Amino acid sequence: MALQGVSHDVSQPKVAIFNDPKIRGWVYQTVLLVAIVYFAFVGIQNMFANLAAQNIASGFGFLGRTAGFAISQTFIDYSQAESTYGQVYLVGLINTLAVAVTGIFLATILGFIIGVARLSPNFVLRGVATVYVEVFRNIPLLLHIFIWYFGVLRLLPHPRESADLGFLGLLNNRGWFAPLPITDDLFFLTSIAFVIGLVATFIISNWSRKRQMATGQQFPVFQTGLALIIGFPLLVFIVTGLPLTFDMPVAGGFRPSGGFTIIPEFIALLLALTSYTAAFIAEIVRAGILAINKGQTEAAHALGLRNGPTLRLVIIPQAMRVIIPPLTSQYLNLTKNSSLAVAIAYPDLVSVFGGTALNQTGQAVEILLMTMLTYLGISLLTSAFMNWYNARMALVER
Amino acid sequence: MKKQILSTIVGTAVLGLTAGYASATTLEDVKAKGSLQCGVSQGLPGFSNPDDSGNWSGLDVDFCRAVAAAIFGDATKVDFTPLSAKERFTALQSGEVDVLSRNTTWTMTRDTTLGLNFSVVNYYDGQGFMIRKDMNINSALQLSGASICTNTGTTTELNVADYFRANDMEYELVAFEKADEVVAAYDAGRCDVYTTDASGLYAQRLKLTDPNAHVVLPEIISKEPLGPVVRQGDDEWLNIIKWTHFAMLNAEELGVTSENVDSMKESANPAIKRLLGTEGEFGAPIGIPNDWAYNIIKEVGNYGETFDRNVGPDTPLAISRGVNALWTNGGLQYGPPIR
Amino acid sequence: MATSTKSTAYVRTEMLGEQTPPGTSTGIVAWIRANLLYPWYNAILTLLAIVIIVLLVPPFIEFVFINGVWTAEGREQCTTIAQGGVQPDGWVGGCWAYVGAYMGQFIYGRYPSADLWRVNLVFAMFAIGLIPLLMPSVPYKRENIAFLLIIFPVAAFILLTGGHFEYSGFLLPDFIMEPSAAKFWVDYIILTAIIVGIGVAIARGTDSNPRPIVRGILIAMGGLALVFIVCAVNFGLEEVPTDRWGGLLVTLVIAVTGIVASLPIGIVLALGRRSKMPIVRLISVIFIEFWRGVPLITVLFMSSVMLPLFLPEGVTFDKLLRALIGVAMFSAAYMAEVIRGGLQAIPKGQYEGAMALGLGYSQMMRMIILPQALKLVIPGIVNTFIGLFKDTTLVLIIGLFDFLGMIQSSFTDPTWATPLQSMTAYIFAAAVYFCFCFSMSRYSAFMERRLDTGHR
């Protein structure tokens, strides 16, 4: 390979065909390919022979069959009497995404707070943050989940003695029974006001950035935006006569009725995933901030910026470039780790589809393949998005 | 120790943990290995449960010991593989275990589509519900809206769905991978109701913090005939399994116990003589010693003895014979005659 | 202006004596003020942190030490009167006596008690092999690695399983020769001959001397044969099937085997991913990204439910071995990425220099690139190992009894069942995992500092 650049007018010595790196390369590759194809072929042949011997059906026809079992948390319409295995797959996927997205959101916030706290000059705060990081990331996630679920669940009261959180609903060992907002006819006006506020803020922030570039004058975008996004809809909401009521959960029977339920499995899994991943994110954030030259802080201070704005306007934007790639892999880890739900019966993809559905149908190959490809798809999509984002954030060098 | 290595890949041969069998029958294979590999549960008191030094005990375990006694004349020549509900059939299909004696319900689908054969029913069971006493509920029909904990990969999950649908009741299902997790969650108060086979309820109740605070509701919502399972296509092996159970039933019916079996050898009763191998050749056709049943009874005991020892009224489970009594006592256990 | 001796009225001629700084800017008060209370939000944060400490630490100490029960016969000493025990109402404490009673199972699983010395011997050998290796100042690294990677695995394998394997051959069909140990060795000799033949053919094709190749093959096959022979020897050890293994033993077996197996596979994959051959690169990329893109638990499900389907009828794998294969594949993909990072960090000049010396690809990698790259990524390898060590807990979901699995299964024992049993056991488990992982991460940080010096 190294010889490729050598000019060809040098009289070439007689070379055996096998010594030509190109040809040798192709020989190796062909052998490798043949070996892989052979093993795949033998494996698949065995699989069909085994399936035939054991009378197990194959193919994806089962996705249309009625599942016939109940699932404790469904965000789409699902009934055990009619819903199919295909719907089970969807329910599982949505549940996985629900816990993963919430987890990513919370872990990012917590991780950034702790990461910054680890660099604080305040030694008590720094100590607490350091202990948090070291303890949480050195204990297996599964143990976190068990501790949250079996340890903390025992501390929650029985439904008959639910803890009343006032407006936030009821908390007991069947979960958190939160009030369900019910919108009246006129509520759509509030939604429209919210959208208008959002669009207006976007336009204003663009305009103010341009103006600041051109004239150096600043415009209080944050306050204006806050007024537009929250204040304006709130005003509309009040003017239209508060078109929103809450269905409050009422204690009674086996479990409170009304409201909407967040099952304890979800809470335990979310807490475990968040606290565990936040420890890793904190370390990433810390490393990212440390990677920024101290001169940047000093220069910002010299310009008269205080600690807050220095961090917000100078350090974090630069640190983000270092932070984003490892942050992406933490997000992916969290998503994949959400599959540990199976240990505490949270109905995620692995639990209901790769677990219950697999047991009922016995079609291990199809179901595991679908499950794995789904995770693979989520991973690849997230990576692609984060790569795109990273490319946008990357330092534009002259 | 004998391990047959028959692998096409040298690498797996290096690891040496592979065990293969060619076209040999299960019996030949077991004899070659020198021990029976028996699939059991991961811990169900009374049926198959390891103690703190790893010794297994229980009704299902005793059945495996009986098979080992029939083949080798030595009930200790058996190794137990704990299996989850999910992996039990794969383990049997792939030959990891020779017999699955893991409180497995006999259903038509399992019998006809998994490449397996159910042999006999060594425990007639039915699915029931357990609930806290202080809930003041005395019928399953009052359970509308309840949270129910159970295992995935079992028939119970589907039975409970059928039952609640048939009675037009709401419920929330929380299904765990492992039985221990179900018990832990129920004990922690995650669910109002714990459902599984009634025998399982009595067994798992022992693991609760306060067993006396829980009751088993009277309703039995399904038929759960539990018994050992073998691979399809090996009739000789199926016969050994079947007749091990029948020998234990016949012994109980004839009053032969592990204590009096030696004196019973002198008995004039031809049925006992045939059972204990002093008359006729009943072991040879299925490839095992002629005193096979004697060994079973001597080493393990008759069906009634194993029942009383593991789940009977004098054990913590305190299950009465009920439908598992001999047919002569109005139960369902009926051993075909040995002749 | 540099030296002006002219006295000016408004310029002081002598230095003022040093004064002590104001009381608020020195000493503990100032330190507290600067670090904890200033500016105002810092004071709030300090308060918050102290509240967190007060809320968590005293109850923890009370649970573990003050209320902890260290000697007990059964559940009575670890439950309150209302729960049927002897402790006063409101007592909340750890039942360490239970942990002590189960310690044997937590470490060895259900390994036969008469044979525990075998496990202890394996642990001791591992420690003897590992500790000097971790200390950079201890010499004989090469011999040490040889012990740890060749002698230790064989010895541990024989000690743990019992050895005395019987072989039945793998190559010739049964109708030529009955399966027996003799057939195995005939097969083995035939296989060696075939490999030697291929080697000679390659050597002929490349016009090089076949002798070193043949010698290399014979040494490798001879060494392998020696391993087989040793495994077949009857040392009089009782066979212990892997389903009797459990606890920390299984955790360590999975973690160590996983890391040892994943290193070579990871190196090959990393080299494959940076190879110039398109098919090799494609296959490596697909392999790596596939395993990195799926959760370990699905890999374990695959190995426990799906793998048996892909094997010919009658061939079965041990359950532990199946999990090991899954774990090894999974960690190999992560290892490959770590090693790729190391390969990328090697300056291009090293490659060019090696090529200029006329080294071939394998020589260049073996003698120039990999030694440097692997040294660079030692912290990364240790971090992968920490991850793997924590991930071993997942095998309890497929029904293997690792350390955490053993702890969970101990909950079923009515002798010790108390409401606080699970909390006690989980705190114990957390402490054990923490000790392992924390010390490893400290070691990784230590190596990072040590290796860092040459590069900046």
Short description:
By secondary structure, chain B is of the alpha/beta class. In chain B, 34% of the residues lie in helices and 17% in strands. Chain C is mainly alpha-helical and 456 residues long.
How would you describe this structure to a colleague?
By secondary structure, chain A is mainly α. In chain A, β1 and β2 form a beta hairpin. Chain A is globular and about 75 Å long. Chain A contains 11 helices and 6 strands. Chain A has 2 domains: 2-49; 85-179 and 248-393, Orthogonal Bundle (MetI-like fold), CATH 1.10.3720. Chain B is α/β, with parallel strands linked by helices and 339 residues long. In chain B, a hairpin with a 5-residue loop joins β3 and β4 (56-57). In chain B, α3 (59-72) packs across α9 and α3 (59-72) packs across α12. Chain B is globular, with a radius of gyration of 21 Å. Chain C has 16 helices and 1 strand. In chain C, α11 (319-345) crosses α13 and α15 (403-409) runs antiparallel to α16. Chain C has helices spanning 27-37, 40-66, 96-108, 116-134, 141-161, 181-205, 210-232, 247-273, 278-293, 296-310, 319-345, 348-356, 361-376, 378-391, 403-409, 421-452, and one strand at 315-316. Chain C folds into 4 domains: 25-66, no CATH class; 68-107 and 405-456, no CATH class; 165-232, no CATH class; 243-400, MetI-like (MetI-like fold, Orthogonal Bundle). The longest helix of chain C is centred in the last third of the chain and has 32 residues, at 421-452. Chains in contact: A-B, A-C, B-C. The interface between A and C is large, with 63 and 62 residues.
